[in-house]
Amino acid sequence: MKKIMIAIILSVTSLAFAQKAPQVQIEQGTIEGVLLSSGIQSYKGIPFAAPPVGELRWKAPQPPKSWTGVRKATEFGNRPMQKPIFSDMNFRSAKVSEDCLYLNIWLPEKKEKESEKLPVLVYFYGGGFVAGDASEYRYDGESLAKKGIITVTVNYRLGIFGFFSHPELTKESPNHASGNYGLLDQNVALLWVKKNIEAFGGDPNRITIAGESAGSISVSAQMASPLSKNLIAGAIGQSGAMIAPTERVVPLAEHEKIGAAFAEKIKKGSLARLRAMPADQLLEETSKWGVFNTEATIDGYFLKKSPVEVFAAGEQAKVPLLAGWTSAESSYMGFMEGQYPNPENYVARLKAVFGDKAEEVMKLYPGSTQEEVIASATALACDQFIVFGTWKWLDAHRRTSGQPVYAYIFSKARPTVPGEKAKDNMPPALPGANHSADIEYLLGNLTTNKVYKWRPDDYRVSQTGVDYFANFIKTGDPNGKGLPKWPVSKGEGEMSIMDISVQPKAHTEEHRERYLFLDGYFSGKK
């Protein structure tokens, strides 16, 4: 009897252990993840491509190697090569390395008799294409997995490792292209998800891509790329598009010259010598001021033409798009460049920036009082930084895709941090949600950010935002039970914009004339 009881106990213990260590068979082999206390399964550090090291530095991502036995998928993979640039980035990965092409998956709790394939979200991090990592707390996929969505976060190469062109690279490439390696990493990750997500219970035909800042810019680029546009069912962009002035896209010939000049500048003229450089030494060289700019290129392979041309021609992914920006992407200081925000200084700045168009700009962005200057300089800083490009993306897509567009502005400011003060006796910036502040809210990850003392209003806004996102990922429409109606925008005319705030409400866009002026100004039509 005693032996029977011991056997039962061992059997129960083994069963519990098995439940805590779920396994999935994917193309490369078997992986073992973790069962979280919430019932969500997580699989971390899954290689979706071969390590881009040695001779694979500056090559399109290659297939990952298979393995025998069970591979542990319990720790995040290495983060891409980068310097500690942004103080709000908190990583869970162990170190930086060129060996960085890994993704992470959060899988909803399985229900009995559940047979329907689940929708999938693939999320690209921000960081100006020079920093960031899929392990950041604010991108954690558990909250959206609780909504029945398989959530994937993806690493991609950054800086010179991800965006370097050179004549020798173009010559050796079977695609006669070089420069967009970070974007190709994202594409190959999408292909990996397409091939493998059914093993996790996902629907390979219901993949939505999303991202914030550089991640949002990436979403627009993937929609414009012939390599990716047929892999996705929907797109979400949080602040950013690959449209000037937000993001310059350089012709390949120009990008090659920039790369060759960099190689000569650091006395490593040949490709072989550049590849032989230790990764940390290469990173150090490109981190010097003015030495290297991280830019995408029209390489003839990933991008046949600039994204703005693709969207204008209606050649992009024909999928629903949800995108927007925060209410205070930048402050008035971003436009005034240290000058006190009085009318005289404002006029001087307008003339310096816009030349003979300054008077026209003054009509759209008035500044006859200090209060007006602060408001208009803030608007100009935001528009030039990231708002106009995002608006242009939305506007072009609704006119040429035949698909629904949902535009938003996120205006819930984070709680005030004690001790925060205006700098150099300058007037305070306008209140609002600053760049990247929406990430924790809209992905349901407020509790991962310990800097702020979140209040009930913050959690209410977060719940609303998560519900909108979840509905859109599932159906292509953010609307659902208990949520304020979010009007769709299609075709011509003014867009409807949803203000995601304590009291969410939709309104007609207020500043279309500003954006139309900037559109003409930046495209050189005026």
Number of strands: 16
Q: Order of strands across the biggest sheet?
A: 3-4-6-8-7-9-10-13-14-15-16
The CATH topology label of the largest domain is: Rossmann fold
Tell me the β content: 15-25%
Describe this structure in words.
Residues 21-512 form the Carboxylesterase type B domain. Its EC number is 3.1.1.-. This is Carboxylic ester hydrolase. Residues 1-18 form the signal peptide. The structure is a single chain. The chain has helices spanning 2-20, 142-145, 159-162, 167-172, 181-196, 214-224, 252-265, 271-276, 279-286, 307-313, 333-336, 343-354, 358-364, 370-400, 438-442, 456-475, 512-523, and strands at residues 23-25, 30-32, 34-35, 41-47, 70-72, 102-107, 118-124, 150-154, 202-212, 234-238, 249-251, 296-298, 321-326, 405-410, 496-500, 505-508. The protein has 526 residues and is an alpha/beta fold. The chain folds into two domains: 20-319, Rossmann fold; 328-526, Rossmann fold, CATH 3.40.50.1820. Strands 3-4-6-8-7-9-10-13-14-15-16 form an eleven-stranded mixed β-sheet, with helices on both faces. Strands 1-2-5 form a three-stranded mixed β-sheet, with no helix packed on it. A hairpin with a 4-residue loop joins β15 (496-500) and β16 (505-508). α10 (307-313) packs across α14 and α12 (343-354) crosses α13 (358-364). The chain is globular, with a radius of gyration of 24 Å. The termini are far apart.
